[in-house]
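Researcher: Before we compare anything, I want clean individual predictions. No alignment, no superposition, just each chain on its own. First chain goes here; please echo the sequence and then give the C-alpha coordinates.
Model: Echoing the first chain and its structure:
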Amino acid sequence: MRIKARIAAPAVAALSAAALFATSGAAQAATGNVEFIKGGLSRITNPQDGYCYHDWGTTWGGPQGFVNHTDKPVKVYLSTDCAPSSLTATVEPGKDFLYSSTWYPLVYVHAIKVG
Protein backbone atom coordinates (compact mmCIF):
# COMPACT_ATOMS: atom_id res chain seq x y z
CA MET A 1 0.00 0.00 0.00
CA ARG A 2 2.83 2.41 0.68
CA ILE A 3 4.19 2.15 -2.83
CA LYS A 4 0.78 2.97 -4.31
CA ALA A 5 0.46 6.02 -2.05
CA ARG A 6 3.88 7.30 -3.15
CA ILE A 7 2.96 6.91 -6.80
CA ALA A 8 -0.54 8.33 -6.41
CA ALA A 9 0.54 11.49 -4.55
CA PRO A 10 2.64 12.92 -7.42
CA ALA A 11 -0.10 12.05 -9.91
CA VAL A 12 -2.71 13.84 -7.82
CA ALA A 13 -0.40 16.85 -7.44
CA ALA A 14 0.20 16.97 -11.20
CA LEU A 15 -3.54 16.81 -11.95
CA SER A 16 -4.24 19.51 -9.37
CA ALA A 17 -1.60 21.79 -10.90
CA ALA A 18 -3.00 21.21 -14.40
CA ALA A 19 -6.50 22.10 -13.21
CA LEU A 20 -5.19 25.24 -11.52
CA PHE A 21 -3.40 26.46 -14.65
CA ALA A 22 -6.39 25.68 -16.84
CA THR A 23 -8.67 27.89 -14.73
CA SER A 24 -6.24 30.58 -13.57
CA GLY A 25 -6.51 34.14 -14.84
CA ALA A 26 -5.06 33.79 -18.29
CA ALA A 27 -6.35 36.91 -19.99
CA GLN A 28 -8.95 36.32 -22.67
CA ALA A 29 -9.84 38.68 -25.45
CA ALA A 30 -13.22 39.38 -26.92
CA THR A 31 -13.46 38.71 -30.63
CA GLY A 32 -14.28 41.77 -32.70
CA ASN A 33 -13.98 45.46 -31.94
CA VAL A 34 -15.47 48.36 -30.05
CA GLU A 35 -16.02 51.17 -32.55
CA PHE A 36 -16.15 54.64 -30.99
CA ILE A 37 -18.43 57.51 -31.98
CA LYS A 38 -16.81 60.98 -31.96
CA GLY A 39 -14.01 61.95 -29.59
CA GLY A 40 -11.15 61.39 -32.03
CA LEU A 41 -10.93 57.62 -31.50
CA SER A 42 -11.51 54.86 -33.97
CA ARG A 43 -11.69 51.41 -32.35
CA ILE A 44 -10.20 48.82 -30.03
CA THR A 45 -9.77 45.45 -31.75
CA ASN A 46 -10.08 42.21 -29.76
CA PRO A 47 -10.20 43.99 -26.38
CA GLN A 48 -8.89 42.13 -23.35
CA ASP A 49 -11.47 40.88 -20.82
CA GLY A 50 -11.50 42.75 -17.54
CA TYR A 51 -9.11 45.51 -18.62
CA CYS A 52 -10.25 49.06 -17.86
CA TYR A 53 -9.78 51.05 -21.08
CA HIS A 54 -9.68 54.71 -20.11
CA ASP A 55 -6.72 56.54 -21.59
CA TRP A 56 -8.23 57.96 -24.77
CA GLY A 57 -5.09 59.92 -25.67
CA THR A 58 -7.02 63.17 -26.01
CA THR A 59 -6.44 66.44 -24.19
CA TRP A 60 -10.14 66.67 -23.38
CA GLY A 61 -12.99 64.26 -22.82
CA GLY A 62 -13.54 61.10 -24.71
CA PRO A 63 -16.01 59.41 -27.03
CA GLN A 64 -19.71 60.22 -27.14
CA GLY A 65 -20.49 56.54 -27.47
CA PHE A 66 -19.60 53.31 -29.22
CA VAL A 67 -20.92 50.27 -31.06
CA ASN A 68 -20.13 46.88 -29.51
CA HIS A 69 -19.00 44.65 -32.39
CA THR A 70 -17.52 42.05 -30.00
CA ASP A 71 -18.88 38.74 -28.80
CA LYS A 72 -19.05 39.92 -25.14
CA PRO A 73 -20.86 42.64 -23.18
CA VAL A 74 -19.08 45.98 -22.68
CA LYS A 75 -19.58 47.98 -19.47
CA VAL A 76 -19.60 51.81 -19.55
CA TYR A 77 -18.22 53.84 -16.63
CA LEU A 78 -18.34 57.48 -15.54
CA SER A 79 -14.95 57.19 -13.80
CA THR A 80 -11.56 56.35 -15.27
CA ASP A 81 -10.88 53.61 -12.70
CA CYS A 82 -13.92 51.50 -13.68
CA ALA A 83 -15.24 51.68 -10.12
CA PRO A 84 -18.38 49.56 -9.73
CA SER A 85 -20.22 52.57 -8.29
CA SER A 86 -19.69 54.46 -11.57
CA LEU A 87 -21.15 51.73 -13.81
CA THR A 88 -23.54 53.46 -16.20
CA ALA A 89 -24.64 50.72 -18.60
CA THR A 90 -23.88 47.28 -19.95
CA VAL A 91 -23.96 47.11 -23.75
CA GLU A 92 -24.61 43.68 -25.23
CA PRO A 93 -22.91 42.44 -28.43
CA GLY A 94 -24.29 44.11 -31.55
CA LYS A 95 -25.77 47.04 -29.59
CA ASP A 96 -24.64 50.64 -29.23
CA PHE A 97 -24.37 53.26 -26.50
CA LEU A 98 -24.60 57.00 -27.07
CA TYR A 99 -24.71 59.97 -24.71
CA SER A 100 -27.06 62.78 -25.69
CA SER A 101 -25.74 65.37 -28.15
CA THR A 102 -27.15 68.00 -25.79
CA TRP A 103 -24.60 67.16 -23.08
CA TYR A 104 -21.68 65.86 -25.15
CA PRO A 105 -18.75 66.70 -24.81
CA LEU A 106 -19.44 67.59 -21.16
CA VAL A 107 -20.70 64.06 -20.53
CA TYR A 108 -18.73 61.33 -22.29
CA VAL A 109 -17.58 57.73 -21.96
CA HIS A 110 -14.84 57.87 -19.30
CA ALA A 111 -13.96 54.17 -19.43
CA ILE A 112 -15.10 50.78 -20.70
CA LYS A 113 -14.46 47.20 -19.61
CA VAL A 114 -15.20 44.08 -21.65
CA GLY A 115 -16.64 40.92 -20.18
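Researcher: Okay. Second chain, same rules.
Model: Second chain and its structure:
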Amino acid sequence: MESVAGGVRGGADAWSVAAVPPRTHFARSGERHMRESDPMTPATTRRPAGVTLAVVLLALGTLTAVAAATADPQAQARTLMTALWLACVWFAVRAGRGRRTARTTAACLTVLILLLAAPFALVDPLYGGLTLLTAAVLAVPGLFLLYAPAAEAYVRARQGDEGSEA
Protein backbone atom coordinates (compact mmCIF):
# COMPACT_ATOMS: atom_id res chain seq x y z
CA MET A 1 0.00 0.00 0.00
CA GLU A 2 1.28 3.48 -0.85
CA SER A 3 1.91 6.21 1.70
CA VAL A 4 -0.66 8.87 2.52
CA ALA A 5 1.43 11.58 0.86
CA GLY A 6 1.28 9.76 -2.45
CA GLY A 7 -2.39 8.93 -2.04
CA VAL A 8 -4.01 5.52 -2.04
CA ARG A 9 -4.83 4.00 -5.45
CA GLY A 10 -5.22 7.25 -7.24
CA GLY A 11 -2.14 9.33 -6.71
CA ALA A 12 -2.28 12.96 -5.68
CA ASP A 13 -5.47 13.60 -7.68
CA ALA A 14 -7.55 11.54 -5.27
CA TRP A 15 -6.83 14.06 -2.52
CA SER A 16 -7.17 17.25 -4.56
CA VAL A 17 -9.93 19.77 -4.07
CA ALA A 18 -11.16 19.24 -7.63
CA ALA A 19 -12.08 15.65 -6.72
CA VAL A 20 -14.62 16.90 -4.14
CA PRO A 21 -18.12 17.13 -5.64
CA PRO A 22 -19.71 20.59 -5.50
CA ARG A 23 -22.16 21.25 -2.70
CA THR A 24 -25.70 21.49 -4.05
CA HIS A 25 -27.63 22.50 -0.95
CA PHE A 26 -27.28 23.46 2.67
CA ALA A 27 -27.75 20.81 5.32
CA ARG A 28 -30.13 22.91 7.43
CA SER A 29 -33.77 22.92 6.48
CA GLY A 30 -35.17 26.28 5.51
CA GLU A 31 -31.99 27.48 3.82
CA ARG A 32 -32.17 28.32 0.17
CA HIS A 33 -30.69 25.94 -2.38
CA MET A 34 -27.49 26.91 -4.12
CA ARG A 35 -27.47 27.09 -7.89
CA GLU A 36 -24.58 27.11 -10.33
CA SER A 37 -25.26 30.80 -11.11
CA ASP A 38 -25.53 31.73 -7.42
CA PRO A 39 -22.80 34.25 -6.49
CA MET A 40 -22.44 32.70 -3.03
CA THR A 41 -19.90 29.97 -2.58
CA PRO A 42 -19.14 28.06 0.60
CA ALA A 43 -15.93 30.07 0.99
CA THR A 44 -17.75 33.44 0.97
CA THR A 45 -20.69 32.35 3.11
CA ARG A 46 -18.61 30.83 5.89
CA ARG A 47 -19.42 32.86 8.99
CA PRO A 48 -16.45 34.86 10.25
CA ALA A 49 -15.42 34.14 13.83
CA GLY A 50 -16.00 37.80 14.65
CA VAL A 51 -19.70 37.50 13.86
CA THR A 52 -20.10 34.52 16.16
CA LEU A 53 -18.17 36.34 18.89
CA ALA A 54 -20.37 39.42 18.36
CA VAL A 55 -23.56 37.41 18.91
CA VAL A 56 -22.17 35.91 22.12
CA LEU A 57 -20.95 39.29 23.39
CA LEU A 58 -24.30 40.94 22.66
CA ALA A 59 -26.20 38.20 24.47
CA LEU A 60 -23.91 38.28 27.52
CA GLY A 61 -23.68 42.07 27.65
CA THR A 62 -27.41 42.64 27.44
CA LEU A 63 -28.09 39.84 29.94
CA THR A 64 -25.69 41.51 32.37
CA ALA A 65 -27.46 44.84 31.86
CA VAL A 66 -30.85 43.23 32.48
CA ALA A 67 -29.48 41.58 35.62
CA ALA A 68 -28.22 44.94 36.84
CA ALA A 69 -31.54 46.63 36.12
CA THR A 70 -33.67 43.95 37.75
CA ALA A 71 -31.48 43.29 40.82
CA ASP A 72 -33.78 45.44 42.95
CA PRO A 73 -36.80 43.31 43.92
CA GLN A 74 -39.03 46.35 43.60
CA ALA A 75 -37.97 47.11 40.05
CA GLN A 76 -41.01 47.54 37.86
CA ALA A 77 -39.13 46.99 34.62
CA ARG A 78 -38.38 43.26 35.09
CA THR A 79 -40.90 42.06 32.48
CA LEU A 80 -40.03 44.78 29.97
CA MET A 81 -36.29 44.22 30.30
CA THR A 82 -36.64 40.45 30.00
CA ALA A 83 -38.79 40.81 26.88
CA LEU A 84 -36.29 43.25 25.36
CA TRP A 85 -33.42 40.86 26.16
CA LEU A 86 -35.19 37.91 24.53
CA ALA A 87 -35.92 40.00 21.43
CA CYS A 88 -32.31 41.20 21.33
CA VAL A 89 -30.95 37.65 21.55
CA TRP A 90 -33.34 36.48 18.82
CA PHE A 91 -32.30 39.29 16.49
CA ALA A 92 -28.61 38.79 17.35
CA VAL A 93 -28.84 35.12 16.34
CA ARG A 94 -30.53 36.13 13.08
CA ALA A 95 -27.81 38.75 12.57
CA GLY A 96 -25.26 35.98 13.03
CA ARG A 97 -26.89 34.22 10.10
CA GLY A 98 -26.28 37.24 7.89
CA ARG A 99 -29.55 39.15 8.05
CA ARG A 100 -29.03 42.88 7.56
CA THR A 101 -32.28 44.07 9.18
CA ALA A 102 -31.76 41.77 12.18
CA ARG A 103 -28.26 43.17 12.61
CA THR A 104 -29.60 46.72 12.76
CA THR A 105 -32.43 45.74 15.10
CA ALA A 106 -30.06 43.87 17.44
CA ALA A 107 -27.79 46.91 17.58
CA CYS A 108 -30.70 49.24 18.37
CA LEU A 109 -32.09 46.88 21.03
CA THR A 110 -28.66 46.58 22.65
CA VAL A 111 -28.33 50.36 22.94
CA LEU A 112 -31.93 50.61 24.21
CA ILE A 113 -31.32 47.95 26.89
CA LEU A 114 -28.14 49.68 28.06
CA LEU A 115 -29.91 53.05 28.22
CA LEU A 116 -32.99 51.69 30.00
CA ALA A 117 -30.87 49.73 32.48
CA ALA A 118 -28.84 52.78 33.54
CA PRO A 119 -31.37 54.46 35.87
CA PHE A 120 -32.30 51.18 37.56
CA ALA A 121 -28.72 49.97 37.87
CA LEU A 122 -27.40 53.22 39.30
CA VAL A 123 -29.70 53.02 42.33
CA ASP A 124 -26.83 51.07 43.92
CA PRO A 125 -23.72 52.79 42.50
CA LEU A 126 -21.27 50.08 43.52
CA TYR A 127 -23.05 46.90 42.40
CA GLY A 128 -25.25 48.44 39.72
CA GLY A 129 -22.60 50.76 38.33
CA LEU A 130 -19.95 48.06 38.03
CA THR A 131 -22.43 45.59 36.58
CA LEU A 132 -23.62 48.12 34.03
CA LEU A 133 -20.01 48.94 33.15
CA THR A 134 -19.34 45.21 32.68
CA ALA A 135 -22.42 44.97 30.46
CA ALA A 136 -21.18 47.85 28.31
CA VAL A 137 -17.66 46.37 28.12
CA LEU A 138 -19.21 43.14 26.81
CA ALA A 139 -21.89 44.54 24.49
CA VAL A 140 -20.15 47.49 22.81
CA PRO A 141 -17.31 45.45 21.25
CA GLY A 142 -20.01 43.05 20.03
CA LEU A 143 -21.68 45.95 18.24
CA PHE A 144 -18.42 46.92 16.58
CA LEU A 145 -17.78 43.32 15.53
CA LEU A 146 -21.24 43.14 13.92
CA TYR A 147 -20.24 46.01 11.63
CA ALA A 148 -16.62 45.00 11.01
CA PRO A 149 -15.53 44.67 7.35
CA ALA A 150 -15.55 40.85 7.53
CA ALA A 151 -19.09 40.91 8.94
CA GLU A 152 -20.20 43.36 6.27
CA ALA A 153 -18.80 41.12 3.53
CA TYR A 154 -20.56 38.12 5.10
CA VAL A 155 -23.91 39.94 5.21
CA ARG A 156 -23.46 41.13 1.63
CA ALA A 157 -22.71 37.59 0.47
CA ARG A 158 -25.66 36.13 2.38
CA GLN A 159 -28.05 38.77 1.07
CA GLY A 160 -27.00 38.41 -2.54
CA ASP A 161 -27.36 41.17 -5.08
CA GLU A 162 -31.07 41.68 -4.49
CA GLY A 163 -30.67 42.74 -0.83
CA SER A 164 -33.97 41.17 0.23
CA GLU A 165 -34.42 39.08 3.36
CA ALA A 166 -36.12 35.74 3.54
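Researcher: What stands out in the second chain?
Model: The CA atoms of residues 37 and 150 lie 23 Å apart. Additionally, Residues 48-157 form one domain.
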